[in-house]
Amino acid sequence: MASRGLCSRREAERLIDAGCVVVDGEVVAQQGAKAADDARIEIKAAARQVLGRRATIVMNKPLGVVSTLPEAGQTPAWKLVRVHTQRGTMAAAARAAIVADAQSLSVAGRLDRVSRGLLVLTQDGTVARRIIGGNGVEKAYMVQVTPAPRDEQIRKLNGPMRLDGAALLPMRVTRAGAGGLCFVLIEGKKHHIRRCCQTVGLEVTDLQRIAVGPLRLDDLPEGCWRIVLQDEIAALRRDGRVADDIGVQGRSRGARGPRR
Q1: Which of 71, 125, 136, 204 is the most exposed place for a label (fewest CB within 10 A)?
Q2: What is the pLDDT at residue 74?
Q3: The pLDDT of residue 50 is above 70
């Protein structure tokens, strides 16, 4: 079910336990049941409605907030999901339901504590799988570096690179204002951008994610969140690319000064 994109593995387990999964006309009675590759798998209508109501939000994560697994004294991102931090048009009842169950939101694509910007949190396993399941969804970042990058360094960042002995998938790196670079990549190793910059003699002083596929940070205030609309979810499922003008947009909004 997960490989067909019907739901996540965890959601599949719950649906099977609830008797909501039908394979070739028969209700699946237990976990671990096998199905042929060409089997017809259906989810009962009531369960589809439940899955369809699962929320996905984007947040502008501030520095110092952790995506997951907080240590003592740290603030996890879901704790910023409050009524007063919501932006955009949304029914009060739906907002209250998301806030009340904020801890159930899973991070789809982490940002480390010293990075900021767009963070996707979702109750929908298919959305999480689309973003982090190796499905070619691009992520865009505005990065401030020191010293000011030279053309030669940018060429190296756009060329073949390796981390931990493994070849990296190609990145698109362009200038974005004085001392700024826009990175677009489809994989995310630990401290990926920071380490790549260090390899070519640059130090990252500020890193902000501005897009995940068609989902954009735009003018969402820091520490705030908004619901992701169904047409945005549909666009994410169709196409994992970021907009061609994303570097221009990030440059026009400006980046913060260096952070130490």
Answers
A1: 71
A2: 94
A3: no
CA atoms of 169 and 104, how far apart (whole Å): 32
What tens digit of pLDDT does each residue of 147-161 get? 999 999 999 999 999
Contacts of 93 by beta carbon, 8 Å cutoff, 6+ apart: none
pTM of full prediction above 0.70: yes
Tokens of 44: 């009962």
Cite the DSSP H helix spans in the chain.
9-17, 45-52, 92-100, 125-132, 151-158, 192-199, 230-238, 246-253
Neighbours of 247 (CB within 10 A): 24
CB 121 within 8 A of CB 212: no
Q: For residue 147, is the peptide bond before it cis, meaning its omega torsion is within 30 degrees of 0?
A: yes
38 annotated active-site: no
Q: Which of 24, 112, 218, 239 is catalytic?
A: 112
Q: What is the pLDDT of residues 69-90, one digit of tens each?
A: 889 999 999 999 999 999 998 8
For Cα atoms 15, 16, 20, give the angle at the middle one, nearest 5 degrees.
60
